[in-house]
Amino acid sequence: MLDKKRFLPEFRRIVDTLPKMDTSVPVELIRQVPLPSGLSNPPLVDFWDETFNNGDTRLRMRFYRSKENLDKNPGLLYWTHGGGMSIGTPEMDDGMFERFATEAGLIIASIEYRLAPEHPYPIPLEDCYTGLVWLANNAKRLGFDENQIAIGGASAGGNLAISTALMARDKGGPNIFFQMPLCPMLNYKNNAPANEEFTEDAIPFSWNREANAFAWNQYLGNLERDKVPYYASPALAEDLRGLPKTYIAVGELDVFRDENLDFVMRLCQAAVDVEFHLYHGVFHGFEQYGLPSTKKVIDEYVRVLKEAFAEGQ
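Above: the chain sequence. Below: its structure as tokens.
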């Protein structure tokens, strides 16, 4: 276990009570665990589902829009959820989406992409890119400004957000003007100092080196490891020029800390406008615990989105 003094005081009081991260549990069972709704009661947003095709597969997109902004033509935040590429649904972030929709005045679209290991790379990424194209082609009907599309996601979703932006850059569209990958999962090699530091012995209740190795193996499947493309592992991308303006945030005690720091540095060197926040004394996934520091961080995300969309007009 890490020295408790490294955690923020409010987390020092709860780390001993948090359950251990267990990658031995079948993902099928984890997927069956119901997620509590994070929406207000009654909700401050209207939410609905749309479906679209990726080849022969029908995929779901979940939308959130403030009940206060129904007559406006807002920007869109396209979200790719986290969950280690193997679990998760659009609804897992609905409380945060409610704040984004009501306080930043956005429409949120969160895709239910297909999950590994049943659907390894490149299927989840292809789902996400196809979803971006579908959104851009249906902007008028869906009621958002087609010139104001941003993309975001946390953890594995941060990987998919960046990879989708890379694919959109390489394919010549659709245009993404801003990206917000939060604590993104970027490097399949899992060998940075933070990966060596934050093992299951050191931080058993949070995403750690062993959980990360498990997730990458699920996602990459039978892909030869010396042939992993940068669309799968964005840390491998040698040319980051042309990516949209970026905001990245990660915790000081997060297993992804070092690969995120390296990626931010290389974005700067590629002349990509980037803002970065390293949150002191917190670990991967700390936002889910509803503590005072969590609210401050979500406040920060709202600020970033409001400023990005205001500047993008």
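Residues 292-312 form the longest helix (21 residues).
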